[in-house]
Amino acid sequence: MTDYQNILVGIDGSKQSQLAFQKSVAIAKRDHACLHLLSVVNGEPYPNAITFGISDKGIYDKVIDKMKALLAKMKKQAEEAGVEKIVTSVMVGNAKVALTETYPVDHQINLILVGATGLNTIGRMIIGSTTAYIVRQAPCDVIVVKTNEENKPVDLKQVIYPEI
Which of 40, 26, 133, 156 is nearest to 95 (CA)? Predict the structure, then answer.
């Protein structure tokens, strides 16, 4: 089996993304891989004709700062666990596109880890599952994390948003 050189983890602050992060640390350490921690703030990266004047990119600043702080904390945890190379990034855009098309291609990612789910039934019907999209569209291997560090099943109903 080939070792992974560039591992991407989608981080959104959920319990599921924390589980994916924990698994990614073990894989990155084992393979001496570069671990990429990416958080995508859903929104328009640049004001367009419709949003110009209504809002500006500054509306994302608070969320971006919060995610940068979270990624810095996770980076420190990964370093303490023995991961040698870690890249953190926060971007504004479409999480589905960023995690499957943009970032993996630009950084030669050959493994993506994501949490199993983050939306309730209504949310999945309206915007669709980011995880399902990544599994279908990613240009590389994808691991959907449904278990904890000991590979014990996690009750997803306790870690996802409430059903409506």
Answer: 40
Report which residue type is found at 119: L
- Alpha-carbon distances, residue 45 vs 35, 38, 69, 149 (angstroms): 24, 15, 20, 35
Structure tokens at 87: 């890249």
| HEC string for 49-86 | CCCECCECHHHHHHHHHHHHHHHHHHHHHHHHHCCCEE
Q: pLDDT per residue over 50-85, tens digit each?
A: 554 445 557 788 999 999 999 999 999 999 999 999
Q: Check: CB of residue 38 under 8 Å from CB of residue 11.
A: yes
**What is the torsional sign of CA 14, 19, 22, 25?**
negative
**For residue 21, what are the contacts with CB-CB under 8 A and spacing of at least 6?**
9, 11, 37, 74, 78, 113
